[in-house]
Each structure stands twice: as C-alpha cells, then as structure tokens.
Known about the structure:
Helix content: 55-70%
Strand content: under 5%
CATH topology of the domain at 53-120: Methane Monooxygenase Hydroxylase, Chain G, domain 1
Largest sheet: none
CATH architecture of the domain at 53-120: Up-down Bundle
Order of helices and strands: HHHHH
Shape: flat
Radius of gyration: 32 Å
Number of helices: 5
CATH superfamily of the domain at 53-120: NADH:ubiquinone/plastoquinone oxidoreductase, chain 3
CATH class of the domain at 53-120: Mainly Alpha
Amino acid sequence: MLTEFGKVLIFFLLGAMFVGVTLAVSRLVSPRRPSKEKMMTYECGEDPIGEPWVKFNIRFYVIALIFLLFDVELAFLFPWATVYADLGMFAYIAGALFVLVLFLADFYLWSKGDLEWIRPEPRIPVLENIIEHAERVSPTGTAPEKEQSPVAS
C-alpha cells in the first residue's frame, strides 16, 4: 500500500515521463528544413539590423520594475475598494495612507530622475571648486589670506 508521498512521487514521475515522451515524439516527427530566413532573429516582423547579441539600455529594466511595483501595489486597492464602505472611516484612512505612500514613492522616483528616459549626467564635486566657492562666500567678504609655511625660506 502506497503512502501519500508515494502517490505524489508516482504523479511527478508520470508527469516527467509525459513531458519527455512528448518532446521526443515532437523531435522525431517535426520537419527540419532550416533556411537563412528561418534562422534569422525574430524582431516583430522587421528585418534585424546588426548583431542580435547587443546590450540593452538599463532604463528598459528600471522602467519595467517601477511599473511592476506600482501595478502590484495598485492591485491591493481593488479588494479595499469593495469593502471600505462596510469598514467605515478606519478603512478610508488606511486606503488614503496607502495612496499617500504611493504618491510619495512616485515623487521620490521622479525627483531622482528615474522616470526620465534620458537622465542628466551626475555632477561630481571637485575639491578646488568647493574651495573657490567657500572663498567667495567668506563672511568677511574678502578671500582669506594663505598662511605661510613655518619653515623659513
């Protein structure tokens, strides 16, 4: 007599055999007539230009991840919208806080420039520029004099 785990093992073995037999039969039966056109990279009906192994701009992935993040979070609003009238003011405040957090996250991403396709180049501070700026904005209005080295020349 089989235990429950034995039944599950037989189920997985039969599933693996079914997949293996299906792949083997399709390999044996399917025609193979490769041509230049069939071996080309498919790009939505357009003829490909250049090599298919190119690096994509990371912006594609960032925009996709941001979309998924907000899409999944907004999916939580649908169940809330169906029951908030039954729960009263507490549910309304909870939903309003949730939407507020979404807007804050959106404005944060916007301020960082993650929603812009072409991001501005970052300005890396240079020490000389910081010193010149500090000298220009000194409280006395004049540039401080440079101290001489204690070593006599």
